């Protein structure tokens, strides 16, 4: 369920603070050298090929929600190390390291905010924090958010960026978060709630196989990697080359699993418009 | 029943078993031979107790994958009075890795779903070694709806290394169907019992894993990722699978401690593969008892309790609660 073998995420542009002016970036989409500042001004989208670079959770909040409307919820929840898990490094230490490196407390930020003056419940996962994987804290924050949205009859938007799926360092507890969040979404659905799931690069494994796939509407950013099993696992299992556009947003659209591919520039407008059709 | 060739840690057991078998084959049995057989049997039981009383995580994985371990179809034959197989997902195909059908168990009429691994090579290939495609989960959902409509309790046998990783599986929405199947199960208005009978391999297992009761056979495992997969990612080599197995804490006693599993069904001495009949009979009595219990509850209460059961799972620190607690005053 952990699809951590998905394509590595280019993290260089996440460290934009402190980088000298005038730095050029190599775009993974078109291999062109692009001016970093220009990319940043275009919501981290390549000016040459429209490749959508990584966006941090906090930048995403700024892009999608009305200025100053975001109110975080359940920030106080912290991952512990219930299995006392250690691979080549202790999970407890890894957590502290990730918190320092990303400035996040865990891989998801949840809360409420406004999208063009429409109040919503909102969550975004950040692929920089242990691959955006879901452990107990991610599962609990999402579940509390879905329950809050159910109780307050709010539209729900979750933007996913998770190459890691369920977080293996928390073992079965991580797997069970898929069930927990899904069950909360089923109750939300029963109450008539409107859920838009936005899939971004990458959305894999246990995240794809739970809440991310359960939107009343499923949007995806262009050319995102989205799927259940990691491409390397599939290649190792079947031993043949994978199709060119395999597990991309476009591939999923073609196979009928996505409602719309939405560029980052249009995401806020598209979310607001969808709420006008389906929100309460 | 001999377990046949197989597990390395069973070498001593296998030697005793073959010694006993060869003595018993002798036509001119003397009192001395009889005595030797009795002694060897006692020694065998002691050894089985010792070895199976302290299986480590990696040994548990090997037992759960033993080629003679009973599969879903074996339990359908041995524990149920009737099985009427139902095929197809009414959409794309019939996945042999997911069995479904009506079944009778004591006085209960039920719907059974279960992963099937296949015993012969041909069967195994047809079942993709127990790895279901999206068709399998769609098939499961179609039968779940049927069970709900006619108030048949649902019994799910989990035994899969994981959902199938392949091109067709991705094209037909593997992630989507697992999510949808959990979504449906979480609200299903009929009693649901899930039993991990062998391998509980991540999302492919959980796809039929949301029950009012979740049980495991003693030597099965249930994990977020296979030990080999975990070792490959975190240790950069599959050779560390036994280390990963220990780190993941996925045995039946671990899962009981973590509050994920409600009941553990004890296996016959030396594992389910040594005595299919005894295992089936224990499983049957567990199911019968649990069905009677669940059947006596109002369905709304059952569905609410199912929600709460999964709602509680997770371990984290909630500082707000700690600050608010009286001990902090
Ligand atoms: Zn580009």
Task: Describe the model.
Chain A: Its EC number is 2.1.3.15. Chain A: Acetyl-CoA carboxylase is a heterohexamer composed of biotin carboxyl carrier protein (AccB), biotin carboxylase (AccC) and two subunits each of ACCase subunit alpha (AccA) and ACCase subunit beta (AccD). Chain A: It is an enzyme of class 2 (transferase). Chain A: Zn(2+) binds at residues 27, 30, 46, 49. The complex is a heterodimer of chains A (280) and B (329). Chain A is an alpha/beta fold and 280 residues long. Chain A has one domain (54-278): 2-enoyl-CoA Hydratase, Chain A, domain 1 (Alpha-Beta Complex). In chain A, 33% of the residues lie in helices and 19% in strands. In chain A, strands 3, 5, 6, 7, 8, 9, 10 and 11 form an 8-stranded mixed sheet that branches. In chain A, strands 1-2 form a two-stranded antiparallel sheet. In chain A, strand 6 (118-125), helix 4 and strand 7 (156-162) form a beta-alpha-beta unit. In chain A, helix 4 (136-152) packs parallel to helix 5. The longest helix of chain A has 20 residues, at 171-190. Chain A is globular, with a radius of gyration of 18 Å. In chain A, 54% of the residues are buried. Chain B has 329 residues and is α/β, with parallel strands linked by helices. Helices cover 49% and strands 16% of the residues of chain B. Chain B has helices at 11-25, 31-53, 57-64, 72-79, 121-126, 134-149, 167-171, 174-187, 202-206, 227-235, 241-248, 252-257, 276-295, 299-311, 319-324, and strands at 82-85, 98-105, 108-115, 154-160, 192-201, 213-217, 221-223, 263-265, 316-318. In chain B, helix 4 packs across helix 13. At the A-B interface, strand 4, helix 4, helix 5, helix 6 and strand 10 of A face helix 7, helix 8, helix 9, helix 10 and helix 11 of B. Bound molecules: zinc ion.
């Amino acid at each position: 369920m952990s699809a951590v073998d998905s394509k590595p995420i280019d993290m260089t542009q996440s460290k934009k603070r402190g980088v000298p002016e005038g730095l050029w970036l190599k775009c993974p989409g078109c291999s062109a050298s692009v001016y970093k500042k220009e990319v940043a001004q275009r919501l981290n989208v390549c000016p040459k090929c429209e490749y959508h670079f990584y966006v941090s959770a906090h930048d995403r909040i700024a892009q999608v929600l009305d200025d100053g409307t975001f109110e975080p919820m359940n920030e106080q929840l912290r991952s512990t190390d219930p299995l006392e898990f250690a691979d080549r490094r202790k999970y407890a230490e890894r957590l502290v390291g990730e918190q320092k490196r990303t400035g996040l407390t865990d891989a998801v930020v949840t809360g409420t905010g406004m999208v063009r003056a429409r109040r919503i419940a909102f969550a975004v996962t950040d692929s920089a924090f242990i691959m955006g994987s879901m452990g107990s804290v991610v599962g609990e924050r999402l579940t509390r958010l879905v329950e809050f949205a159910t109780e307050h009859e709010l539209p729900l938007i979750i933007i996913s960026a998770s190459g890691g799926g369920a977080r293996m360092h928390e073992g079965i507890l991580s797997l069970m978060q898929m069930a927990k969040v899904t069950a909360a979404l089923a109750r939300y659905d029963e109450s008539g709630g409107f859920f838009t799931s936005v899939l971004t690069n990458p959305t894999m494994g246990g995240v794809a196989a739970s809440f991310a796939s359960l939107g009343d509407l499923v949007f995806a950013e262009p050319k995102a990697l989205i799927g259940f099993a990691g491409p390397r696992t599939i290649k190792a299992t079947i031993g043949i080359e994978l199709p060119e556009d395999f597990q991309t947003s476009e591939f999923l659209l073609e196979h009928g699993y996505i409602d719309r591919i939405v560029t980052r520039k249009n995401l806020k407008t598209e979310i607001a418009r969808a709420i006008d059709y389906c929100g309460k | 029943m001999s377990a046949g060739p197989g597990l390395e840690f069973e070498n001593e057991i296998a030697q005793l078993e073959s010694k006993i078998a060869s003595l018993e084959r002798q036509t001119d049995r003397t009192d001395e031979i009889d005595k030797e057989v009795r002694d060897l049997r006692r020694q065998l039981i002691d050894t089985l107790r010792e070895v199976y009383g302290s299986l480590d995580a990696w040994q548990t994985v090997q037992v759960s994958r033993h080629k003679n371990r009973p599969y879903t179809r074996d339990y359908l034959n041995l524990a149920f009075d009737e099985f009427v197989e139902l095929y197809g997902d009414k959409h794309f195909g019939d996945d042999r890795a997911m069995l479904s059908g009506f079944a009778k168990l004591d006085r209960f009429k039920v719907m059974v779903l279960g992963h099937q691994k296949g015993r012969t090579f041909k069967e195994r290939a047809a079942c993709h070694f127990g790895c279901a495609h999206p068709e399998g989960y769609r098939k499961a959902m179609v039968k779940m709806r049927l069970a709900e409509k006619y108030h048949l309790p649902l019994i799910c046998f989990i035994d899969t290394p994981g959902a199938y990783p392949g091109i067709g599986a991705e094209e037909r929405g593997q992630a989507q169907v697992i999510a949808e199947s959990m979504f449906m199960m979480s609200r299903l208005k009929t009693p649901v019992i899930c039993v991990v009978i062998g391998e509980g391999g991540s999302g492919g297992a959980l796809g039929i894993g949301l029950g009012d009761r979740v049980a495991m056979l003693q030597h099965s495992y249930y994990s977020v990722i296979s030990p080999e997969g975990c070792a490959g990612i975190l240790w950069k080599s599959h050779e560390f699978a036994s280390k990963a197995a220990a780190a993941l804490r996925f045995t039946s006693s671990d899962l009981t401690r973590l509050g994920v599993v409600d009941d553990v069904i004890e296996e016959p001495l030396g594992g389910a593969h040594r005595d299919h009949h005894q295992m089936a009979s224990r499983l049957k009595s567990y199911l019968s008892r649990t069905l009677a219990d669940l059947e006596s509850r109002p369905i709304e209460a059952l569905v609410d309790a199912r929600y709460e059961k999964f709602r509680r799972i997770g371990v984290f620190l909630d500082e707000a609660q700690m600050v608010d607690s009286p001990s902090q005053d």
